[in-house]
Structures are given as structure tokens and as C-alpha cells.
Write a structure and sequence with these properties.
This protein is of the alpha+beta class and about 525 residues long. About 25% of the residues lie in helices and about 25% in strands. The longest helix has 18 residues. Pfam families: SBP_bac_5.
């Protein structure tokens, strides 16, 4: 790990003031790198982590799931549909442009057009500039999740992203899985600036010398992220001292990290649900609820958690984890192979059928091993699975096209709220609103859709909780998808890396605040 002084440190030393912790360079190994530098191109954990490096949200979650100010210093409710945000003054984008209300309004309007984010921002009708450092966010009706939602409003540099590229394209275009100006040329207000990026090889960041947050304890000057897909290789790199911080540490490798000198294992309970979707649009038998139920009865979630996850996860029977409003404690896993066989026979598929399945091999903990286990379990009820696993950079384009009969998808609630799971995973697909954006099961239930929309307008917490619990019961009875487990989280770090302070259950550490000691 190299040590050096950044511009801020040098200036303080010249003034006779020294940092108690010297600036540091660090290398981090991940299972995959972000697919884009555009914070609105893809709603994924890697994109959100990148966003917290290069950009800043209006507010963000703390480790304890409270809300803290970021680009918005304070806020107040004007009426039941309007929240006013007072923005920080003196904030600079990486381009040198000044941050103002115009940038937030521009960003809001872009989010409303983003295929992946417009469903999150659908409850909002407008962002209105009050003055250069004040905006009003207006909702279509009473909405209980305003602050939750604006944790995803990472302000972009409207002047920098305006205009045309040399080939005549709009610099502000959101292009899914394509090369765009925004996907390769970031300008945010975040703690780091992009220094170098080669997709699939490495991403280099350098500290933003004009970063507004002078209270941040972070002392990392240069940060290099390298993708290492193989779990064991990633751990070996940490143990050899080639990297300083890794994510994730698979359950199979955690004892290696625990027992090694000079490194530590850092863990958090997780709320990301891992599931399989059954594509009713592509495979006709999945339109039969008995077939979907048979698949659910055939999958041994407890066995996957115990044997493949080594206990490092929580068996799931629904989308919503315990502790969230809307978790339904009455719902239990359905594992019963004989019941599954009876349902297949009742539906007219005693001899089974053949299906295609896709899963990533470097996105979720043990993802390809889980897929292989599910394939073996389905074979017991005569479902022959043609499984293909792909690196995440190739997986997402295939998933977005729903190019298989069964597809793996993990989801962490973007708003730390139960309704978000359904908004993206189980509500009827709607390109206009963005609802069901990641519903490759093509599951559609008008009762569920109406229930979620109503819950999103309900400000009575008790009533809202009961509505969301009922939504989970509908999905459970309909066997809308195959819930597997909520995966826990694990990182490995050198002992001098203050990982504990920056990791969180959201699975995007605030690396701008990372402290590395001598």
C-alpha cells in the first residue's frame, strides 16, 4: 500500500496543520466491476457503489438506517404533496462547474426517463426550482417514502452533460448496455474523480481535491478497483498482500480469512433476496399455477442455505425480510418433493419437460453453485434444465431481454421498503411507468398491482404494513416466483483498513469515508 500526500494534506502542512492519518493509496478486488459510469443506466449494487464514489445523493442512509444530509442540508414539508430541500452552497462538480438547483431539477427529469429508475420516481410529479439552492419535490399524492427515494437522486452536472457529442448524440442520453457520453465521462460532486477505466480490467479513482465534505474522515487518495471473478483467487490476492480490501468473501473462504494473520473478516446481516423467476411469456407451462407451485415445492431452500451458503444466509419464503414493514411471518418454505410430483401430474406434466435457465457466475454469493443445486432439485420432478451461467457483464443484457425460461435475480430494496420488491420484480411489466422492470417472470396480477399502488399512498404505518403483508400472501399463493434466501454480506480487509465503519447492509460501502492507518 503506497503512501502519499494529496493537495489538501500538502496545503494543511504548509499552514502548519497536519493530518493525524496520512493519505493512502488502496487496491480493492470485487467479483465484478460496474458496467457503466452513468448512475442512471442500471439499477444495480455495483452502479450504486460507483455512484457514491463519483456523485452524491441529496440524502443517504446511515449504517443504522437513519437518514443523513448530503447535497441537501435540510428539508421540510410544505404541504401533504410537497417537500422542500435546501441545497449546499459552494459545492463543485469534477468539471469545475458550480452545483445548484438547476442540476437537481435536470437530474430529476432524467431519472423520470431512465428505464431502470423511472418506477422509483413515478410517485413524483415535479421538481421545481425555488431559488439557486432550494427545490421543491412534488408528489402526485400523499407519499410516505420521499426521503427513502431521494437517496437515489445523485445530482449530475447539467452543464457538462448538455449539448451534443462529436457524432451528434445528446450527451445526456441514457443508453442501456451501450456506449454513451454519460457512460464513460462522469462529472459528479463525489469524493472521487474517475482517473482511468478499462472495462473488465480495472477502474482507477483519485480524490476530488475540491470535495465539499471537509468533515469526512476518509484519507484514501488513489483507489484502484480490480475485478476478480473467482472467490478463492480473490481471497488469495488479499492474503498475499496484492490487494487491501475484497468483496465478497464466499462462505467457503471465510475461515481462510479468519485464520490468516494481518487480515480480518467483516460481516453484516443482509436483506438482498435471491430468487428465480419463471418466464410465463416464454414457456407456456409456467402460466399454470400448479406448475409454478410444483417448482417451489421441489426446491429445498433450507438445504441451499445449510450446504451451499454454509449457514451464511436466511431461508426465504417471500420477498420481504424480517424487520421490514410488510414481512409476513405466517409464510413458510414449501419444500415437499412428493407434493411437487403430484402437482406436476395434476397439471398434465407427470413426465416433465425441458427448460432453459440462466444465472450469473460472479454477481451473488455462490450464484452458479445455487443454480446448479436448483437444476438438480428440479430433475427430481422430471424437469430437465439446460443451465447457462454468465459473467455479470454478459448476464444483464440477457436478463433484460428475458432470454430464458428461468432466470436468477437478486434484489435489495432500493428504498429499504417492502413495496420496492414488487415494484420491480412482481408488478405487471409497464414500460411507460417502469413498473415490473425486472419482472422476467411476466407475472401479472391486477389485485397485487392495485394493492402496491395503494400502499404507496398510505401514510398510516399500521394499515400500510397489513396491505404489504397481504401482497406477500398473494405472491405466495400464486407461486409468482421462487424465493431462495436473503444473503448475508462479508468483506475481507487488511487489518489497517477501517472497513467496519464504511460497510453496511445496503451492500455499497461509503468508500469516500474509508480510513487506512499506517
Amino acid at each position: 500500500m503506497k503512501k502519499g500526500l494529496n493537495k489538501i494534506t500538502a496545503a494543511l502542512l504548509t499552514a502548519g496543520l497536519a493530518f493525524s492519518v496520512q493519505a493512502a493509496d488502496i487496491t480493492i478486488a470485487y467479483d465484478a466491476d460496474p458496467v457503466s459510469m452513468d448512475p442512471h443506466e442500471q439499477l444495480s449494487g455495483a452502479t450504486l457503489e460507483m455512484s457514491h464514489l463519483l456523485f452524491d445523493p441529496l440524502v443517504r442512509w446511515t449504517k443504522d438506517f437513519d437518514i443523513e444530509p448530503r447535497l441537501a442540508e435540510k428539508w421540510e414539508r410544505i404541504d401533504e404533496n410537497t417537500m422542500r430541500f435546501h441545497l449546499r452552497k459552494g459545492v463543485k462538480f469534477h468539471s469545475g462547474n458550480d452545483f445548484s438547483a438547476d442540476d437537481v431539477v435536470w437530474t430529476f427529469n432524467r431519472l423520470k426517463e431512465s428505464p431502470d429508475f423511472k418506477a422509483i420516481f413515478d410517485p413524483f410529479s415535479a421538481a421545481t426550482k425555488v431559488d439557486d439552492h432550494t427545490i421543491d419535490l412534488v408528489t402526485k399524492g400523499p407519499f410516505p417514502l420521499v426521503l427513502n427515494t431521494v437517496t437515489y437522486l445523485f445530482s449530475m452536472d447539467s452543464k457538462y452533460y448538455s449539448g451534443k457529442t462529436d457524432d451528434g448524440k445528446n450527451k445526456g442520453d441514457v443508453v442501456k448496455h451501450g456506449s454513451s457520453f454519460a457512460s464513460t465521462n462522469p462529472s459528479g460532486t463525489g469524493p472521487f474523480k474517475l482517473k482511468f477505466r478499462q472495462q473488465g480490467v480495472k477502474v482507477e479513482y483519485e480524490r476530488h481535491a475540491d470535495y465539499w465534505d471537509s468533515k469526512s474522515p476518509g484519507n484514501v487518495q488513489n483507489m484502484t478497483l480490480v475485478p476478480i471473478k473467482e472467490d478463492a483467487t480473490r481471497v488469495a490476492a488479499l492474503l498475499a498482500g496484492d490487494v487491501d480490501f475484497i468483496k465478497p468473501v464466499s462462505p467457503n473462504d471465510q475461515n481462510r480469512v479468519k485464520s490468516a494473520e494481518g487480515v480480518k473478516l467483516v460481516t453484516e446481516a443482509g436483506t438482498r433476496i435471491i430468487t428465480f423467476q419463471m418466464n410465463q411469456d416464454r414457456f407456456e407451462p409456467f402460466k399454470d399455477v400448479r406448475v409454478r407451485q410444483a417448482v417451489n415445492y421441489a426446491v429445498n431452500q433450507d438445504g441451499i442455505v445449510k450446504r451451499i451458503m454454509r449457514g451464511f444466509g436466511t431461508t426465504a419464503s417471500q420477498q420481504t425480510p424480517a424487520g421490514y414493514v410488510g414481512h409476513n411471518p405466517e409464510l413458510k418454505p414449501l419444500y415437499d418433493v412428493e407434493k411437487a410430483k403430484a402437482l406436476m401430474a395434476e397439471a398434465g406434466y407427470k413426465d416433465g419437460f425441458k427448460i432453459s435457465m440462466i444465472a450469473p457466475n460472479n454477481r451473488y454469493v455462490n450464484d452458479f453453485r445455487i443454480a446448479e443445486a436448483v437444476k438438480a432439485m428440479l430433475a427430481r420432478i422430471n424437469i430437465d434444465v439446460d443451465l447457462k451461467t454468465l459473467p455479470v457483464a454478459q448476464y444483464w443484457p440477457e436478463f433484460d431481454k428475458c432470454n430464458a425460461d428461468m432466470l436468477m435475480i437478486g434484489w435489495h430494496s432500493d428504498t429499504e421498503d417492502a413495496a420496492n420488491f414488487s415494484e420491480f420484480l412482481t408488478m405487471t411489466r409497464n414500460e411507460e411507468t417502469g413498473r415490473g422492470q425486472y419482472n422476467c417472470g411476466h407475472y401479472s396480477n391486477a389485485e397485487l398491482d392495485a394493492l402496491i399502488e395503494s400502499a404507496n399512498l398510505e401514510t398510516d404505518g399500521e394499515k400500510r404494513g397489513k396491505m404489504l403483508q397481504h401482497a406477500e400472501k398473494i405472491l405466495y399463493d400464486d407461486a409468482a416466483f421462487v424465493p431462495l434466501h436473503w444473503q448475508n454480506l462479508a468483506w475481507g480487509a487488511r487489518n489497517n483498513v477501517g472497513a467496519e465503519a464504511v460497510v453496511n447492509a445496503m451492500d455499497f460501502p461509503y468508500l469516500g469515508d474509508l480510513v487506512v492507518n499506517d
